[in-house]
Task: structure prediction
Amino acid sequence: LLCMPFFGSSFLRSTLQVAGPLALLGWTCAIVQYSVFGAITGNHSGSYGAYSADALHWGTLWCLRAAVILLPFYADLRAGMHVYYKRCLMFNFFARGEDVRLQELGKHPYCPFVVVTGTSNDFQPPGDEDTISELSFSCLHFGGEETGYVETPAHRTLAKATAISGAGCLDAISLSMSDTLSMRFWLEVLNLTWGDY
Result:
């Protein structure tokens, strides 16, 4: 950031596009060096100090335990930005900050027929060229021309549909309309996607 006035934002962007994947590759190589070649060479000049079979065993065991404990919560951890965005929309734009189910909207005689649109990223039917599909959410059905339509489930809420609709702009532009693999890398690593997957 300090170099931006001298080199410009394109230099920072180019640096970050290369630095993230290279840092991940370097970390992976250091782990492989320690675990695979450490037993042979002793890893005296390696990244994690001298090789110890006990340290490798306990490190692997704790990583496995953490993975087993966190795996059931993966979807919740990944949807953190989506939940935050949904709550912001709900508390700022909904009456009394309360969410309402889409099917209940259809039963209210004074409520207009609400149709919220969203996108499905990376869905591509056979023979189609684009990787983005438009979706519609209503009190009766949700889906699209390319994905097909299904009946709206009873648990689908207006706040969720609204948040998915707003995320369609952010995620569709950054994920579907950009071929840059490093953009996907940074969005996934930093958990900056707003949609619900």
